[in-house]
């Protein structure tokens, strides 16, 4: 498949690298191709030359499946740069978190309680099929759940059942067992997934490791 990944940071790199390892063709989108190509991204890109770096619009045009791995405060701007026409009808795996670092640490949530970033995205781009997933864990774990022992969970939430089924297949290809993928329902389920971040950040601080995840016991 052709995959368009919005985001040149650690999540974009990790997801893009995994898709490429699985044999997919990947283009990463960024605001300024020349600038990103010379920065921290350059070292990683040298090790993954098969992955293209392009504008958000070109990555959107290219991808049959799209991934939002941009900073939560910049996600809507990134998608506007990608262009509604290029996003139309496509699945967006939304991994972003609405973390606002502008007032220092710990970050606050820029949207919460009665909405979420995923809902803002879905509402501004109604023709795109947004599936919230993978935002509840550190990047390495997203594409390699066996880094933690035993069973633990990943979530999907979105309005389009077909899109969630497609994303679930992608998660299985990343190594997630089907029984560990929990469908939380429509896109409003992103509220809880995003509001988990303050707890995740506290766990990270207390346990001194990002290698932590949710295991739902019943
Ligand atoms: N780091 C993790 O392990 C982790 C885990 C779970 C979820 N997440 C979430 O995943 C997302 C990506 O995280 P990250 O750590 O890889 O990188 P990040 O530093 O949060 O985001 C980097 C990306 O955001 C883009 N961006 C920033 N401001 C923008 C703006 N105003 N307009 C358009 N684009 C903008 C950057 O564009 P340029 O390429 O142009 O610079 C870059 O591609 C975040 O929402 C984060 O909360 C991260």
Fold and architecture overview:
This protein has one domain: 3-Layer(aba) Sandwich (Rossmann fold). The protein has helices spanning 10-21, 33-38, 41-47, 56-62, 75-82, 84-87, 117-124, 139-142, 161-174, 190-195, 197-207; strands at residues 2-6, 25-30, 52-55, 65-68, 91-94, 99-100, 108-109, 129-133, 154-158, 181-183. Strands 3-2-1-4-5-8-9-10 form an eight-stranded mixed beta sheet, with helices on both faces. It has a two-stranded antiparallel ribbon with strand order 6-7. With 218 residues, the protein is of the alpha/beta class. Residues 7-12, 30-32, 36, 69-72, 74, 77-78, 95-97, 99, 135, 138-139 line the site of NADP nicotinamide-adenine-dinucleotide phosphate.
Task: Describe this protein with a few key phrases.
8-stranded mixed β-sheet; two-stranded antiparallel ribbon; binds NADP nicotinamide-adenine-dinucleotide phosphate; 11 helices; single chain
Q: What's the CATH superfamily, by name?
A: NAD(P)-binding Rossmann-like Domain
Return the string of H and E elements. Answer: EHEHHEHEHHEEEHEHEHEHH
Write down the overall geometry: globular
The total strand number stands at: 10
CATH architecture: 3-Layer(aba) Sandwich
Number of domains in the coordinates? Answer: 1
SSE-based structural type:
alpha/beta
Question: How are the strands of the biggest sheet laid out side by side?
Answer: 3-2-1-4-5-8-9-10
- In helices, the fraction of residues equals 25-40%
Whole-number mean pLDDT: 98
Give every kind of bound small molecule, once each.
NADP nicotinamide-adenine-dinucleotide phosphate
Number of helical runs? 11
Q: Which residue ranges are poorly predicted, with pLDDT under 50 across at least 5 consecutive positions?
A: none
- Major sheet: 8 strands, mixed
What is the CATH class name?
A: Alpha Beta
State the separation between the terminal residues, measured CA to CA: 36 Å
CATH topology: Rossmann fold
């Amino acid at each position: 498949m052709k995959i368009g990944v919005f985001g040149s940071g650690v999540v974009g790199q990790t997801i893009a690298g995994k898709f490429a390892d699985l044999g997919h063709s990947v283009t990463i989108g960024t605001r300024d191709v020349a600038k990103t190509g010379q920065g921290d991204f350059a070292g990683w890109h040298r090790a993954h030359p098969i992955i293209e770096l392009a504008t958000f619009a070109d990555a959107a045009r290219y991808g049959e499946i799209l991934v939002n791995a941009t900073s939560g405060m910049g996600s809507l701007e990134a998608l506007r740069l990608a262009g509604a026409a290029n996003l139309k009808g496509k699945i967006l795996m939304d991994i972003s978190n609405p973390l606002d670092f502008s007032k220092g640490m710990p970050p606050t949530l820029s949207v919460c309680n009665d909405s979420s970033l995923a809902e803002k995205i879905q509402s501004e781009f109604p023709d795109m099929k947004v599936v919230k997933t993978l935002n509840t864990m550190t990047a390495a774990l997203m594409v390699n759940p066996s880094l933690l022992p035993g069973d633990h969970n990943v979530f999907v939430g979105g309005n389009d059942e077909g899109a969630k089924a497609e994303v679930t297949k992608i998660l299985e290809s990343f190594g997630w067992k089907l029984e560990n993928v929990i469908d939380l329902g429509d896109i409003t389920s992103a509220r809880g997934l995003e509001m988990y971040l303050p707890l995740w950040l506290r766990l990270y601080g207390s346990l001194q490791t990002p290698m932590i995840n949710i295991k739902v016991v019943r």
